[in-house]
Amino acid sequence: MHSNHLLLEEPIRMASILEPSKAGFFPAMTKIVGTLGAKSRSVEVLSACLKAGMSVARFDFSLGDTKYHQETLENLKSAIKSTKKLCSVMLDTAGPELTVLNKSEKPISLEADATITLTPDEGQVASSEVFPINFGGLSKAVKKGDTIFIGQYLFTGSETTSVWLEVDQVKGDDVVCIVKNSATLTGSLFTLHAAQIHIDLPTLSDKDKKVISTWGVQNKIDFLSLSFTRHAKDVREAREFLCKLGDLSQTLIFAKIENEEGLTHFDDILQEADGIILSRGNLGIDLPPEKVFLFQKAAVYKCNMAGKPAVVTRVVDSMTDNLRPTRAEATDVANAVLDGTDAILLGAETLRGLYPIETISTVGRICAEAEKVFNQDLYFKRTVKFVGEPMSHLESIASSAVRAAIKVKASVIICFTSSGRAARLIAKYRPTMPVLSVVIPRLKTNQLKWSFTGAFEARQSLIVRGLFPMLADPRHPAESSNASNESVLKVALDHGKASGVVKSHDRVVICQKVGDASVVKIIELEG
């Protein structure tokens, strides 16, 4: 993967661009999160999605009940078993999301310059004259001239399936708006987004709490995607709630930045969260178009320097209905990778799109091509400079392992870890080769029964760029008392050989604990 590394800053032979790319064992270092729904919930499609490169499955609880999502998850487990591909589970909360319920599910056509009333009276039937919404405080939050956007759930931003409204007047609890563009809205649920307006609703709703404490606990979710995170305290409160649920104290919280409020408090949120999801759909409404790229680049950089995963959404909307992305979308995916993004999140494209497998495969190929020209040298120097001196012990070991691997042209870095932290720190320095994270299970007890930890840590690395987990046999110790106890290493190398990551005469960099010391060593495989 590292051998054909190019740099765009250096002269590049144009004809070489047309040479077919060699397929690697891993589709790409950048991870792909797929939202599961109607078009992507059968065992057959899920198996194909895993083979195409999906490593995180997102369950969006704005749509569907726990029974529906449980059926999908059981199918995913069957697909994981048959493909032998690991996949982690992300629960996405509904949060303070404003929606219009279209009970009849009939398409609703709106004409430009017509008026429409938004009402909190949910007993009314949605039509081209009135939209019942799930929030009683909209009339107090908006004023004449404000902008409101309504689109099909998980909208794609297409102007024919979403509508812009301008507030004309407030009548009691109702808001009368002027339609700015003609559109036809389809489906049972529409999303409503009021640009740059504070919505006085809790980030974690009662419905969210119920879903997490039942479905989330039952399935030991790996990630919680906290929709509409606006303040650091939103993350703190969510973590307190998870800790009360015992089994979910290890669940990682990804703060979803969706509006101006979240953007304003970004630095504080990043400090509290385990990762960030840049929800560009809603952000693209709150921000002027010319500012969206600036926020993305600044936010991804901050995540990279903090060593926390950055996930970018809304990249290939047009693939919801088409087999190929637009030129702008293909370039957008590549630029997200060059910016330093850890994962690409697919929404409508896999939830209700016609080509979920092809979308994952296409995005994976674009990511792999972009990774070949990622300026690792510049990134490494920038990260080392940002971290400063003196470095922490772990940070120093991680950066040294990456530097050594690049200097000796290693084919893989193998890192032994119990918590997953050491492997994530290595990935922070974006090595050009895969990092095989060998998670050593630890024995723990709640005084009633003994159990092994490790599966959580292994699955949670599936959202980090360049990190590929492997769960070791608990009988093999992570910390060998002497450097010659190589049993776990042999298992890891055999796994690497079987998967085609390493071959005879390759060099491999090992990062492990020997006694109390952390050691980085280089080995050359025999022929």
From TrEMBL:
Residues 395-515 form the Pyruvate kinase C-terminal domain. SUPFAM superfamilies: Phosphoenolpyruvate/pyruvate domain, PK beta-barrel domain-like, PK C-terminal domain-like. Pathway: Carbohydrate degradation; glycolysis; pyruvate from D-glyceraldehyde 3-phosphate: step 5/5. Residues 30-360 form the Pyruvate kinase barrel domain. It is an enzyme of class 2 (transferase). It comes from the Eukaryota. NCBIfam families: pyruv_kin. This is Pyruvate kinase.
